[in-house]
Fold this sequence. Notes:
Elements: H1 2-6, H2 10-19, H3 24-39, H4 43-56, H5 58-70, H6 77-81, H7 86-94, H8 103-106, H9 108-113, H10 117-147, H11 153-163, H12 171-194, H13 199-213, H14 218-230, H15 236-265
Helix pairs in contact: 3-12, 4-10, 5-7, 5-11, 7-13, 10-14, 11-14, 12-13, 12-15, 14-15
Amino acid sequence: MDDVRDTLNEREEAQLDEHRPPPAKVVHAAVSEHGDEELDRPTSSLFWSAIAAGIAIMASVSVSGALHSFLPDAPWREAVVALGYPIGFLIVVLGRMQLFTEQTVVAILPLAREFTARNLGRVARLWALVFTGNLIGTAAVAALAAYGHVQSDEMLAGMVAVSAKLQERGAFETMMQAIPAGFIIAAVAWVRSAESQAAFPIVFALTLAIALGGFTHVIAGAAEAFLLLWTGHADLGWTFGTFVLPALVGNIIGGTGLFAVLAHAQVSQEI
């Protein structure tokens, strides 16, 4: 590298530094710092932000349902419908709301860096607040969609049709398909720290991959599951036993057990 720099003038060296991607340990430090900030936020801030995220994620179901209602029954319809899935995530992630597996995974890096009872308690507090708030938000907004006549009957039918695909899977299949989704959503926080100027395409591309792959995110899926519950297409046992809990376990395995641990392991000897 020194030989290469010898051929450059001062302005060109500055351009070289500007275009170099940050080292992995710098990205790790940025995500860890973000995690520390989230762990220190007041309880009320985390909780209300999580409720807001649960409400906002319904946009993914709404737009997907609208696309489903507008399009003819054709082999390519599901691929086009998938374009609606990133919308809720864009609102939540770019709005810095608390979404389980996106914001909560960043808290694991401070814990991995310094595994103490205090940090473990801080992580447990964050996870409990965010997951509970997300579920409250999704349950409330799904009830509004089901009973509040906030969209046309055709659009609601499209939303229900999109959501009903969750019922094609059993609990084990839901858990396994939630593992890649957890990994991908966790990657959003990491990649955004490395490429902070490209947040929109990063979030759009990664969440679109979840939809196209048929993977399962527990909170986006909870909005669909609660919609099925409130419209009479599912019962409480299926909502929590067959969907929410298996999806939660899969997302934790993918987002925390795989991504966060591997992200820390790759720089653990450098920090």
